[in-house]
Write a structure and sequence with these properties.
- This protein is an all-alpha fold and 85 residues long.
- It has one domain.
- The protein contains four helices and no strands.
- α1 runs antiparallel to α2 and α3 runs antiparallel to α4.
C-alpha cells in the first residue's frame, strides 16, 4: 500500500516539488513499478519544455526510457535470484 502511495506521489511530484525530490521518489518507486520513470519523464517534459524551441530533444523522456529499461532488467534479475514477497 505504501509503495502505491509513493508511486502516486512520484507521478504528482513534478507539479509540486523540485526536480531532485522528483528524481529521488522516482528512483525509490522504480524498483517496484519500473514504468513510473517513463511516465514522470513524459510529465516533466510536458510541463517544462520551452515552447520556442521546436527542434529540441525531450531529455527527461529519454532519461525516463533509459531508467525504465534499466529498472526492468534489474527487477527481472532480482525476481529471478532473490525471492521477494
Amino acid at each position: 500500500m505504501i509503495v502505491r502511495l509513493l508511486a502516486l506521489l512520484a507521478l504528482v511530484s513534478p507539479f509540486f516539488f523540485p526536480w531532485p525530490y522528483t528524481l529521488l521518489l522516482t528512483g525509490l518507486v522504480m524498483v517496484r513499478y519500473p514504468f513510473v520513470a517513463l511516465a514522470v519523464g513524459l510529465i516533466f517534459d510536458a510541463l517544462y519544455a520551452p515552447s520556442f524551441l521546436h527542434g529540441t530533444l525531450p531529455f527527461a523522456t529519454i532519461g525516463g526510457a533509459l531508467a525504465t529499461t534499466g529498472a526492468v532488467f534489474i527487477r527481472r534479475f532480482i525476481l529471478t535470484h532473490v525471492s521477494l514477497p
